[in-house]
Write a structure and sequence with these properties.
The chain is α+β, with helices and mostly antiparallel strands and 166 residues long. The protein folds into two domains: 61 residues, Arc Repressor Mutant, subunit A, CATH 1.10.10; 84 residues, 3-Layer(aba) Sandwich (Glutaredoxin). It contains seven helices and four strands.
Length: 166
Amino acid sequence: MSNGIGTKFDKVCSILDKYEHNPHKLIAILQDMQEEYKYLPEDIMTFVSTALGISPSTVYGVATFYSHFTLEPKGKHVIKLCDGTACHVRKSHAILNALEKNLGLNKKNPTTPDMMFTLETVACLGACGLAPVVVIDDQVHGLMTPESTIALLEKIKKEEGVSSDN
């Protein structure tokens, strides 16, 4: 099809084939789908439910139960800021403010319009001894300050050729 839909569902079908269309392998199927698309689009979840012969509410229920899954597109670089107790008392909120200001983001709009960055706060990253902690693309950065966090962000922007003018 010229509209690209065929290609999109061809990939979904190959993932379903990999798991032999087994509804008991739904979590693994959704993990592969998210790996492919970086999130779980609604039309993909509906297609999966039909292909596996299970209700859309079952697929949606699994996708929303596990925090690993996301129903919204994320940026190329995902920034996770810990706001657990150790990080919070060591002023993670100041880092959040600096990131939101630098990227022009807020809780309602956590992803930059160019889909380069997504900012998330998490309850705990399990690195309390390094508080405050920022994880960017699964790489842990500890003992962060607003200044060191923005310096790291600017380095990524430079590598990506993204303008720092916000």
